[in-house]
User: What shape does this take?
Amino acid sequence: MVLPMPSVPALHPVENWIDLVQLGTSDLETYIYHPDIADSSFWINWRGCDAQGNVVDVFDIEYSVIGDPGPGGVQVLIDNADVQALDQGYVFYSYRIESTDMPGQQGEESLRRFFYVGTRERQGVIPALAVAQFKQSHQLQIILDWIEGDAVVVVPPYRAMSTGDTVTLTLDLYFMGDPFDTLTLPKVLVPEDLGQPLQWAVSKSELEIIEGSFVDVSYSIAYAVPTTSSFSPVQRLEVVTQEPISRLPALIIKDFNDSALNPEAFPDGVRLQVPLYPDIQVWDTVVMYADSVAASRQSLDLYQGQVKALQVDISTLDSQVLELTLDYPWLQANNGRQMQLGYTYARLNAAESGDVLAVMLSKPLHLPTPIVEQATAEDSGEGPPRGYLYADDVTAGVHIRIPDEAELGLDGQVQMHWQGHAGTGSIIVTEPMPSQPRRYFIPPAAIPANMDKRLEVFYQVTTASGEGPFKSRAFDLAIHAPTHGWPAIQLTEPPSLDTLSLAAVPPGGAVFILERWMFMAAGQRVRVRVDGLGRDDNPLRIPLRQGAEEPVTDAEFAAEKLQVIFALSGLQALKLHNDFVVRVETSFDDGDTYLLFVSAVILLTP
Assistant: This one.
């Protein structure tokens, strides 16, 4: 039986060396496995030589295996000092199993693994595919508390990308160190994928099941034109809940040091600088994530996060500059939202993430004067725009529009203010017309209180980040009361147009009716009085409806008319063969002013 060589996960997948900087002060993890390892013994055989030829050997150490360790094998730690002593040297590493002929003695030797120790010069080595990266991870740990909904796995673009390639992401899940499940997620590339990082969503619940254990993530490429498939290295990540104490520094936005970013100031996009992290290496892959956050009434498609990837090369190390670009169209589409920028870097057996940088995307607000539909413009000179409406032209209400050139900020809350008089003459409208997001309706009830007065019409914007409200320029609007069209009060009992015989008045008094009028509403104040001469030829004023009796009742509004009684005793106090006047005045502004309707002039006869 040929015994497999030991496994050393920390080995560089292509260059076959141990990164001593990455290893730090930790012991080197290795694993021994063969089919008959359960309940057996083995001895390691580590033969090292440094750059000067000095020997560093570790051998004849027996390990006893209890039970079956599974395909992961038995962990064997090589002391850190023994590894560090071999910097720029090399190792032959194998193990021996127990002799079948002489129990307790060393027997057959495994295949030997050869590798270098310490960073090697790169001379014409072909790099492997980049490892897949989890967005919500740090220091080879997937952080469950960072996942909202789904975890995001990113595979950087590869040079031979072609429409029709099938890239299959594989996640081997382990629970308590044992294989638990395998997720296989194929993606067939379409033209829009070419040159872009590929993304997969992995349900958080799939990872929560194996919390405390680990997942091996890798991917393969089956090319559209049949040829040899490619396979990425396997990256192992632990699944944990708690967030790490610290992360790498956040990205830096080049040529920007404010709290809010105006997309219009960056027509070519923004340059994002990744602070060079310790131990940066050629062929590391850096992935930048741009997301935007805010409630939106618009299509979510505009706000899909952007992902960019960049591979470190020697120019990065020489220039000490690592930059990516976030495109202008994405910035513009997300104006008014909070932009969140993060990044990860990874290579085999190394992966870290930076702090998230949050910046408000805010094009300067531009709030020109609203447009009052049907209003006639007046000369306003250098003052606010002015205009007027005739009340009888807008009995069905008024529409106000925010100009197309106004810049409101994405997701900003808009309120249209009709700032008129009294309690009924002012209104704030918070919802626009259906399917017309910049058009607002002022109901008829808010119009009559402003007749023969001026009011301000403006709108206010509160940004998605809570700033404001910011007020637009106001429109100075006059509403002219109708000069005609008001009803005249009519004598209905006894029925007559302009003459009333005292003898015909019933004991309950004369009855007058006022029919429905323009903008009639419950609660409006209507006062009625009689002006005439008394029997002594002195002026006489008799109130018929005043004070607490003035407000229109719900019943009167429903009946669309008012009834007024002129008592017989009042009529008897008037001079016969003389006219008296029944005057009706209505207030549309809660009693501040009254508008005179058409009066009735009646001759009183015996």
